[in-house]
Design brief:
The chain is α/β, with parallel strands linked by helices. It has 15 helices and 17 strands. Helix 6 crosses helix 7 and helix 13 packs parallel to helix 15.
């Protein structure tokens, strides 16, 4: 079968970019200009640029056009972590640890070793975990406003596996998955692996544009909506009750599922705070909401323990997908995690994390005062919008040369246009090292000439 005619245009541009004939930073024709020039439909021109963007060769910038991408090696969804100089700070990945966690682990392992049936930890668990372990997670989730039976909880090897399990159960290749135009990079990787059609929903400072989502659902067969309503990654918003009710209503009206990512939800103020977080989406539409989260950010990234709360009619499919992929959480990890859930260790760590995140936000906002910053006051992430003359890949390369790793906006962009921005992860550097690292970051960005 002959490839579509537009593929020849894609190949022509790709060859010119890779050979250097079109150097990095070159502004390409507008979509309309390309359509006129090549005598193709506007939609076809858009598809040409979409394929070049998917190949990592170009980047579309809102209001500016499409440019040949600067290939710094320190940008994108999987940047290099090898720096040319000694590392000053890793602001690309959140890996929070609290003092004394190593001792907590030793004590927990000694307790497990002394327990009645240590050999049970070496036996294969059923896919999704034993009922008593699922019940421990269900009890923990009650404090988050998720009221579910243990039978609807599946234990996984981290939140990413929980998300993968849910997508396998709910979707088929070619299905439309609605997602915020800026969102968690892992959803892009999974959508690509499962052959899903990502449909970006425009974002506002307060959350997704729900009118746009409603229009999308009226014009396309959206199978599911992936959303992060509480402490969004990377923008930090917390949707209010009215937004959550509207989102649940849109899903109900159009018959699509909701995938609620609660990974960072623990960072928002719990009840009985002065302004407690509204109930999760699961509370508004439990019959069509899958809730996924884990213990990587509130306990430790190396503790690969996650969970998915799945409506009854999808439990069997989700269990089958989990069995096919990796079965679930290992017995030893499950015993550690559920033990810490039961004895209050997780709750204490979450309190520490909220206080730590608030302190880091204060340091960041003081050190970077005057820059265009977006983030939740107790979040571990900060979105830094760059000046018009500053390009994310170039900025990331300069920062890498100064010993600082960051994430560029294209890692989070799900649509054709990528804002010029960096995502700063604040959790990993030791607290005393954060202000000096951010001072160096600011000085490096200021050195970029207009």
């Amino acid at each position: 079968m002959r490839p579509p005619a537009y593929k020849a245009i894609v190949d022509e541009y790709a060859t010119a970019i890779r050979s250097g004939t079109l150097p990095a930073g070159t502004r390409l024709p507008t979509h309309r200009a390309l359509a006129r020039e090549r005598r193709i439909a506007l939609a076809t021109a858009t598809r040409v640029y979409a394929e070049l963007a998917a190949a990592g060769l170009v980047v579309g910038e809102q209001g500016r056009g499409t440019f040949v991408k600067v290939r710094s090696g320190y940008d994108g969804i999987e940047p290099s972590r090898d720096l040319p100089v000694p590392r000053v700070a890793d602001l690309s990945f959140n890996q929070p640890l609290a003092p004394g966690q190593g001792d907590q682990l030793r004590q927990a392992l000694r307790a497990l070793a002394a327990s009645g049936d240590a050999e049970a930890l070496l036996r294969q668990q059923p896919p999704g975990g034993h009922r008593h372990d699922r019940a421990a997670v269900a009890r923990y989730l009650l404090d988050r406003g998720v009221d579910t039976a243990p039978e609807n909880v599946l234990l996984t090897g981290g939140a990413q596996q929980a998300l993968d399990c849910v997508l396998r159960a709910l979707t088929r290749p070619g299905d439309v998955l609605a997602v915020d135009a800026l969102s968690y990079p892992g959803i892009k990787l999974l959508a690509g692996a499962h052959g899903l059609d990502l449909a970006p929903v425009p974002v506002t400072p307060a959350g997704p544009d729900l009118d746009a989502l409603d229009r999308l659902c009226r014009t396309r067969p959206v199978r599911a909506v992936y959303t992060i309503p509480t402490v969004h990654n990377p923008l930090g918003w917390v949707l209010d009750r009215a937004q959550r009710e509207r989102l649940a209503g849109i899903a109900t009206e159009h018959g699509c599922m909701l995938i609620e990512d609660g990974t960072y939800a623990f960072l928002a103020a719990p009840a009985p705070a002065a302004a407690p977080v509204p109930a999760p989406l699961h509370a508004h539409a439990p019959e069509r909401t899958c809730y996924v989260a884990g213990l990587s950010k509130n306990v430790a990234t190396g503790l690969r323990f996650g969970f998915a709360v799945v409506p009854g009619r999808h439990v069997r499919a989700a269990t089958t997908s989990l069995r096919a992929a990796a079965w679930g959480s290992p017995g030893l990890v499950t015993a550690l995690a559920t033990g810490w859930l039961a004895d209050g260790t997780v709750a204490r760590l979450e309190d520490q994390r909220r206080a730590d995140a608030a302190a880091r936000q204060r340091i960041a906002r003081t050190t970077l005062a005057g820059l265009d910053l977006t983030g939740h006051p107790t979040s571990y992430t900060l979105w830094l919008t760059l000046e018009p003359h500053q390009r994310p890949a170039h900025a990331a390369a300069l920062l890498a040369a100064a010993g600082i790793l960051v994430s560029t906006s294209d890692a989070f962009s799900t649509g054709p246009h990528t804002p010029a921005a960096l995502r700063l992860a604040l959790a990993t550097p030791p607290l005393p090292a954060l202000a000096p690292a951010l001072t160096l970051l600011r000085r490096t960005l200021d050195s970029i000439a207009p």
